[in-house]
User: Fold these one by one.
Assistant:
Number 1:
Amino acid sequence: MSTFRIKLSLFLNYFVFAILLNSVGTVILQVQNNFDVSKSSASVLEAFKDMSIAFTSFLIASYVNKIGYKRTMLIALALVAVMCLSIPSLPTFYMTKMLFAAAGIGFALIKVSVFATIGLVTKSKSEHLSFMNFLESFFMVGVLSGYFLFASMVDNSDPKSVTWFNTYYILGGLAAAAFVLLLTTKLDESSIKEAEKNKSATNDFTEMLQLVVLPLVLVFIFSAFFYVLIEQSIMSWLPTFNKDVLNISTSLSIQLASILSAFIGLGRLLAGIILRKVDWIYVLLGCLLCAGVVVLITMPMAANIAPGVKETLADVPVVAFAFPLIGLFLAPIYPAINSVILSNLPSHRHGAMSGLIVVFSALGGSTGSIITGNLSQAYGGETAFYLSLIPIAILIVLLIVFKRLQPKGGALVDIKTAGGH
């Protein structure tokens, strides 16, 4: 197995889906312009994406070991490549829903497989934790690239223009390139196949469900849910917040939203270094407290924005640059808790655990986006973002409990001792 090529393939797979999935914030803004849909109606795009992720993960994750990690990733890449290359010819609100449904299905397959594959290409818990952060930071590089890619296709002079859909031709090409790279790369899955040899697919599915009865896993699931709820509610609605609350032009609103992704990417890159030396709980709690401070400082600033559309960076209010700083502090949380839970399970359980991670992350993302969309429509964007302080406080409590439940010896009780077969 070529470890370098496999790691490169994982990075490229994540890069493609980072752009595709996180275009939802841009698309939410654009469909309001193109198809005259309300904020609450536009928010369902997040649900099409996340519910597809959750549904697919719940049904398929336990079968990934039998299908094979490489084969599963190839199926996902082929699906999104076809969909991306088709949608520019069918630019409708209905097709954007179908696009994100397909993207959700593909990402569920990719993420479960990628998370499980990390266990095959890393040799220690510290390497696992570090690689997870670097991979997630590269995901944010994809998100950042996507904002500029889509912004370059937006026509500010014609709100009804659908030329921005051509961006998906580029994404289709990237998915095809990722498919070819993975297809031509060897991945040794023999250790997983050996562990699965005498197990049925029904047993795999049952074991995934039985993981939930472990207290550490249960607290982790709630932690992942609330983290993604916070991140996606901000990320999906930041372009709309920039346009409607801060009075910034459409293309510039999209570009400025990329600052959040840049900070998240930087935060995960730094965390990959810091977490090698500092206990993860101290890092994450400090980050959440700082995130709360950012909200408290910046939202009052957003309430006093001068009228008139801001067309250039010189006209943009300071809050548009300051609020995305929250991404720097939210950044380390998700990959760190994922690594902690996975590194405390034997490698043949990683597929099932990854399925649970993806399911509850998707539920959190969809819930956060829909709540924020409806709050924005009813009370304004600054109030909606203010209320992110509530899940931040809940997450602080959950992480403290999560740390206390972590096994001292670093090995989670096997599923069989928790009432399994």
Number 2:
Amino acid sequence: MPTLPWTQPKRSASLRDEVVVMASRFQLGRWRDVIPFLLAALQIRRQMLRSPGVVGVSLIAKPFAKTFYTLSAWNDRDALDSAVAQQPHLDVMTRFRTRTKGSVFVFWPLGGTHLPPRWDDARSRLDEEARRATPRSRSR
């Protein structure tokens, strides 16, 4: 599946000088979860585009790698947190919590004139966060 490009809501949010960007990476453990997760991700994408304070969203699905990436921008962290606490996101998060391994999330501020955020920047930040979160074995 190709990248679902940066999409802004039909009703435009009042854009601020600085927005909050969130990127995530979900790695599924089992093949049988790929299609249900993809369908859930598309449902959540629709939800997010209707959520107050959303600036835009994008999704990369790599089903053959069992990996999904999201990228979104919000007027502020409160708007993002509020959307995540709503349905269907809340149910999907609960249902897939034990089916994902090594999920990674990053947040950063971005000037409103620099939208949309770049996927290469988001993936670099996700990779760095994954490295930081993975404990390294120490030689003795």
